[in-house]
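Assess the record.
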Amino acid sequence: MQQVAMHGLLQSLIRAQAEFEFVNKFELDDEGEPINDEQAVSTLIKDLKIPNHQALQSWRNSHLLNSNDDNFISYAHNRLKRKRVIDKL
């Protein structure tokens, strides 16, 4: 954590964590049908313009989302919900 602060990244980390928590706790009135994991991952791939499986693996590695599929899927769902929250606000 000291390295993060030393390089001036602490505020960015705090802001990202606060946004993540806000999105998780935000209740959408019109959530509609629940999104399944495949839809969430597919939307993430489309939004990030990831062209193929190798590029997806590389992205996951660089974002430390490669060792646990649950974390990756949770991230994909959060990104999709974030888009919906932004649209609502």
